Amino acid sequence: MSSPRRAAKTAAKTAAKSRAKVRPAALRVVKPAPATGASAEAERLAAALEQSIVDDKLDTVSAPALQKLMAAVCRVYRARREAGEQFMPVPRNSISATDVMVTASGLLKAADLAVFELGMWQNWTGR
After folding, report:
1. What is the CA angle 111-46-102, rounded to 5?
2. pLDDT, tens only, 70-117
3. In whole angstroms, what is the distance from residue 119 CA to residue 127 CA?
4. Distances 60 to 15, 48, 84, 96, 120 between C-alpha atoms, Å
5. Exposed, middle or buried by CB within 10 Å (0-12, 13-18, 19+), for 74?
6. Residue 41 to residue 49: CA distance in whole angstroms
7. If both were cysteines, with which of 32, 38, 95, 113 could 99 make a disulfide (CB 3.0 to 4.6 Å apart)?
8. Cα gap 42→53, rounded to integer Å
9. What is the pLDDT of residues 3-25, one digit of tens each?
């Protein structure tokens, strides 16, 4: 049998863990609309970039063009999320953990941010 102090500590830890596991409302699934205009162009570009990896032609898009594309995609995603849309930036399991880590690290470095700051921001905003 444990002491009352130990039991209280255990209960407090259990309560803290259950509060930490509370998740935000589930992100809704966005039904794809027929690709037209910029969406069709984006899909063609995505396919061309994927093919460049397969063909080992990584310079298909220049580094400055890729940087402009990444910046625009980040800004549009943020704007749509702030406008109330809730969707993941990429479909689940569509890219590897390494893809995510390398890209996230590069984005944080480009904005002169540390992982700690990301964690604090997520804690403050609940995102």
Report:
1. 35
2. 999 999 999 999 999 999 999 999 999 999 999 999 999 999 988 888
3. 10
4. 53, 8, 35, 21, 37
5. middle
6. 12
7. 95
8. 17
9. 555 555 565 565 555 544 444 55
Token pair listed for 36: 């037209």
Q: What angle do CA 117, 85, 119 make, to 5 degrees?
A: 10
**Amino acid, single-letter form, for residue 77:** Y
Distance, CA of 68 to CA of 55 (rounded, Å): 23
Q: Is 94 in a helix, a strand, or coil?
A: coil
Q: Domain residue spans in the chain?
A: 39-87, 97-127
Residue indicated by tokens 């997520």: 122
